Amino acid sequence: MARAFKKRVKPRPLRIGDLVLKVIRGLIIDPRGKFRPNWSGPYFIRELTLEGAAWLMDLDGNRFSELTNVDQLKKYYV
Question: CA 67 to CA 74: how far, in whole Å?
């Protein structure tokens, strides 16, 4: 079953300078409940590491102080 699933998975190569959205995880108290947004962003990828993490920067040029796992990002198409 896993082999059949992996045949259809396409790699998502991310590059420096790409616009991405970041998943919102965790317990966030939001009055909208299940209608709250699932993704935040868009952000620029400032730097990528070999371990599969990325340094992000918002559109105003503010840099994030924490690394973000590439699995929590998806490409943002304008």
Answer: 15
Residue range 61-71, pLDDT digits in tens:
999 999 999 99
Top CATH class of 2-75 equals mainly beta
**DSSP percent split of the chain into helix, strand, coil, nearest 5:** 15, 35, 50
CA angle 21, 22, 28 (to 5 degrees): 130
Q: Which residues contact 77 (CB under 8 A, 6 or more apart)?
A: 19
CA distance 34 to 10: 29
User: At 40, phi and psi to the nearest 5?
Assistant: -120, 155
d(CA 54, CA 51): 9
